[in-house]
Amino acid sequence: MHIDTVLLKVASRCNLDCSYCYVFHMGDEGWRAQPKRMSGETQALVGRRLRELRDAQGRPFSVVLHGGEPLLLGARGLGSLLGMLRRALGAECGISIQTNGVLLNADILDLCADQRIGLSVSLDGPAEVHDRFRIDHGGRPSHARVLAGVELLRAHRDAKTLFSGVLAVVDPATSPDAVYDYFRELGVPSVDFLYRDGNHSSLPYGKASVGSTEYGRWITRILNRYVIDPAPFRIRMLDDIIKLTLGGGGVKEGVGLTDYGILVIDADGTVKKNDTLKSSPLGDGFSRDWTVRHHSLAEIACSDEFLAYHRAQRPSSTSCARCPHLRICGGGMVAHRFSETSGYENPTVFCADQKMLIERALELVGHHLQTQAA
Ligand code: SF4
């Protein structure tokens, strides 16, 4: 067993109050029991456990500062945390921050540049798309403030290494062309498109039925734009789908059959499973209270419960087993397979959307290969 990614919840609260957030608006109130910020003592323990993990597995992994909103630590708090993580992990482990961008300032950018940290900003598209859901605690829109942070980031002398891209949650009711044009004009290096959470018993926002294809039509339109764009920004989900149709492997959870080892460390040092499971009845907690205070991350990664959770990533439904697209699709995210009647033994609730996207990708790749051969 090896770990690819460790998410550090360094701040358990957020300065925004996005209405679709799986941390604060999916019925899990666990964040209330967490300290607002990870203490210096817990940070030091986390650094020690991460170094032990790197030594135990003999290969690097990524560390992502998450929240809540990690920039709530402030420039000073972040500076000491990032310096400690770099000393513990050396240069070979990637360290990045997932932020809503509102609190970005010159001091934070300088210290991230000094420690070779990548920043990904949550931005859903133009104001009319972003501000439908990404609001603050007073119900005010956040787009203008996020954009000001992105502009600072883009103007930084080390923007090329600092700015890794944006994370955009898809709203299938919006125009994919408008979203694509917006990100292109903004000059972002990459976009990670995410679907809204849901499952067979609680359909994702925007999906009329399990068999409907609102997300499939939306993302296929993005694919159509992407493949003819002479200077596109990178779209990891589509790069993965294209690589998989050509027989290669993916790098992002949710497509392909690669197993990913992900651990989450909460602000109080508790170790949990992948955050995305919060929105499903499986939950993100372990039955045992694993914590960096008493347990090494390697010990947790080798536990029976972690291995069972890890194996659960593999699709187990008969529909997936018989599906010609299984190697490309992978059955989707575990949380999206759930139904009250059959647990997790289902294709993803986005199965019809995935089929539409994969079939279009196969068509485009086939056409491209034919043209090249001719
Ligand atoms: S397309 Fe549907 S049936 Fe096929 S592997 Fe994906 S989720 Fe399973």
Characterization of the model:
- By secondary structure, the chain is of the alpha/beta class.
- The protein has a single domain, classed as TIM Barrel (Alpha-Beta Barrel), CATH 3.20.20.
- 39% of the residues lie in helices and 11% in strands.
- The protein is built from 14 helices and nine strands.
- Helix 2 (74-89) packs parallel to helix 3 (106-114) and helix 8 (214-228) packs parallel to helix 14.
- It is globular and about 60 Å long.
- The structure holds iron/sulfur cluster.
- The site of iron/sulfur cluster (SF4) has 14 residues, from helix 12, helix 13 and helix 14.
CATH third-tier fold name: TIM Barrel
CA-CA gap between termini: 45 Å
- Total strands: the figure is 9
Tell me about the biggest sheet? 9 strands, mixed
Gross morphology is globular
Low-confidence stretches: none
Strand order of the largest sheet: 7-6-5-4-3-2-1-8-9
Distinct small molecules: iron/sulfur cluster
In DSSP terms (H or I, runs of 4 or more residues), the helix count works out at 14
Instruction: Provide the helix percentage.
Output: 25-40%
Instruction: Provide the succession of SSEs.
Output: EHEHEHEHHHEHEHEHEEHHHHH
How many structurally independent domains?
A: 1
Determine and state the CATH class: Alpha Beta
Over the alpha carbons, how many angstroms does the gyration radius reach? 20 Å
On the 0 to 100 scale, the average pLDDT is 91
Query: In the CATH hierarchy, what is the architecture at level 2?
Result: Alpha-Beta Barrel
